[in-house]
Amino acid sequence: MELSKNFEHQATEEKWYRHWLDKNYFHSEPDDREPYTVVIPPPNVTGVLHMGHCLNNTIQDILVRRARMLGKNACWVPGTDHASIATEAKVVQMLRERGISKSSLSREDFLNYAWEWKEKYGGIILQQLKKMGCSLDWDRTSFTMDPDYYKSVISVFTDLYKKGYIYRGKRMINWDPRAKTALSDEEVIRKQTRQQLYHLKYKLDTPGEEYIVIATVRPETIMGDTAICVHPDDERYRHLQGKFAFVPLINRRIPIITDEYVTMDFGTGALKVTPAHDMNDNQLGQKHQLDVVDIFNEDGTLNTAAQIYVGEDRFEARKKITKELEEKGYLIKTEDYTSEVGYSERTDVVVEPRLSLQWWVDMKKICGPALDAVAGEEIKFYPAKFKNLYRHWMENIKDWCISRQLWWGHRIPAWYDAEGRFVVAATEEEARKMFKEQFSIPNAQLKQDEDCLDTWFSSWLWPFEVFKGYSNPGNKDINYYYPTNTLVTAPEIIFFWVARMIMAGYEYKGQKPFNEVYFTGIVRDKQGRKMSKSLGNSPDLLEMIEKDGADAVRFGIMISSPAGNDLMWDPSGNDQGRFFINKMWNALKLVKMWEGRQEDGMPESPESRFAVEWFENRLKEVRLQLNEQFNDFRLSESLKTIYSLIWDDFCSWYLEWVKPGFEQPVGKAVYEKTVAFFEELMQLLHPFMPFVTEEIYHQLKERTDDLTVKLFPAATEADKELLSAAGLLKEVITAIRDARVKSQLKPKDPIKLHIQTENRPVYEAIAGILGKQVNAESIAYTTNPVAGSINVVVQKDKFYLETSTVPDTSSQKLQLQKDLDYFKGFLAAVEKKLSNERFVQNARPEVIESERKKKTDAEAKIKVIEESLASLG
User: Fold this and answer.
1) pTM confidence score
2) CA-to-CA distance for 561 and 91, rounded, in angstroms?
3) Which of residues 700, 718, 736 is at a domain's end?
4) Cβ-based neighbours of 229, under 8 Å, separated by 6 or more
5) Do both 621 and 754 map to the same domain?
6) Residue 370 falls within a domain, yes or no?
7) Using one digit for the tens of pLDDT, what is the confidence trace for 404-447?
8) I need a labelling partner for 727 at 20 to 30 A (CA). Which of 344, 375, 444, 685 fits?
9) Coil/strand/helix, residue 45
10) Residue at 366 is within a domain
11) What's the domain range around 789?
12) What is the pLDDT of residues 391-416, one digit of tens each?
């Protein structure tokens, strides 16, 4: 197979992904193997690939590919969410561009356009995931509005209603004036917002007093005021309790009431109460039986109940009302004020509290098992810090508003007659039967509820309904793949989705939906800002893949991704990935050069034998390390472990140690071992960088098997003494090379190396490689310093480099003095810790022993350095 000069990522990625699909490697069917199941957090059908998707799906792919190579039956289910609000907004925009308004269409016609849009644009993101190399089982692709899935959602609604868990009620909700729909509390983003606090005069309906002053950030809502509230203990207003005042501009007479809810030291201590347009005011209104005056239309404009500025947008009305209040003497002053304001998570407009008749889930009735499952670690969270956040939310859970004023989505299965009576039924035919039974009305003329269900009401069934676990209970897929293994998701949707999936799992399957949840961090830029299109700091992921390759992009995001914490993404990570690929490609070219220079029967030198044995044990050591790291989801650490193994140990050390001389043959046994090592390195790296590893694996030699399904060898214990000897060897080589450079010795100038050590057998085992790597023509052992030599100290051993020229020892003295100062400071710090009685009494025995060993080692090192300085004069 001809080897290209450089790794050509574009052709390689397309070739291997097509090959994997053709071989059906990503498809799973139940069998006798242990399953490893992951369901993708379904992206919106409107979505396109961004850095958050890149991180989340790269992590999932790493876990799935590794499971597959561990011999498990890996099944990663793809799919998309219908995304009611986002998709409807896209369709409305498309219609507007065609000169069509939603209001001019029937529901059926609008949905036809919506499905047209979905078929054309929906799911683009799934195709983009293929560019990243994601090994999803595409035969299992699901959509939250697939026919069977749709029926399951409706059936779950009717079931919960029959159980008394779903009800219809008029309550204060969060309203999105742009999308014209209700939102759940979790769909509201609280942002610190700079505002103005307006101090307004309300004329009193009492002789002798002119007015009472209230402070508000929302002067546009005064037309909805139905009371003024003061604290019962506020002496300033005690004489006004039970009196009345008039709302400015519209002159409505309202009572002055008392309640301990009022904060006396905020504003003026007098609160305007607007029950229709503030959550807390609504509770006050219910408590004190106040009138409710709703002054806003669905789109946030003022309605006729406002009496003034009818039809004006709420924020335009604020400007005009403020101006009129000032002109008429009602506005005393304004001051800067910062507070949290709710914004729609979908449209980013300020949410309007609104009294509305909606459908709700009584969450307290179904949350118990889900709370216990995480508290008892039946479901494990990584990082564990999210357990407290989850517990707090679950223990203070509120009812879930599940109705949305939209057409795209799962239509609420409630059926009404002309009198407003209703039943909940999956079909109109069933509803007619229920009307006849409950109300004795045969052949009732019924109309289905116009609203749709919250998008999350369908996606909370995702882990089991992708296997038709509700619509076809007991089927072979649900019995085999459920519960799933790992959920990888963002902490922002722990309440939206994670908690609700756990509730649904216990409610409808009687068991957890997954074994563990790994929460990724948020991808931020170098300034720490969350990446977003609006800030212009989010790169085009597909452009990066086109330019740098999927492997480099995957490397770049994973190398800077600490487990469960936010990551500061830097494009230089992609460069590091490309350099890594180049390093491996150059190593491949070197090894391929040896292919034609093999000599069968060539005796293995002691140096090569040591190198091979060392690297075999390094692989054993790393296999165990990776198992431990993966078990704790320390994936970035795993990548760094493999990166160092390949770049440092294999390329920089092993290949150098076994490399034959110029135009010299290489032993066949050593060559075959080297190829085997290279293959296993590619296997370890494959889950992280699948394309380049598969390509190198096939370039190393002709073969019919593929790396993506090659099973990992079993992890076994390594020879720690051999690894220690090799570590010492690398340290000594590095120190001697550094001393040669500082003494201005050319690499080709040979030296005579004298070693003063108490561990002579260790050095005799590595002498061949050591001499070759530092260009020593001889190695001898000594018990005394060698006059006129270059001195090097490594651990407790001393090395004397004898040269044919007089060496310059000044740089050695400076380095040794620097080392001496460091170890004396280190020793002082350890001695201080050990002299601390509190530390000695409270620390674990193994910690104290570790500190004592540090002290002994530092003292020995200081002694060796001082002796070396003395020998230099």
Assistant:
1) 0.85
2) 36
3) 718
4) 256, 257, 258, 259, 261, 262, 270, 271, 273, 284
5) no
6) no
7) 999 999 999 999 999 999 999 999 999 999 999 999 988 889 99
8) 685
9) coil
10) no
11) 719-807
12) 999 999 999 999 999 999 999 999 99
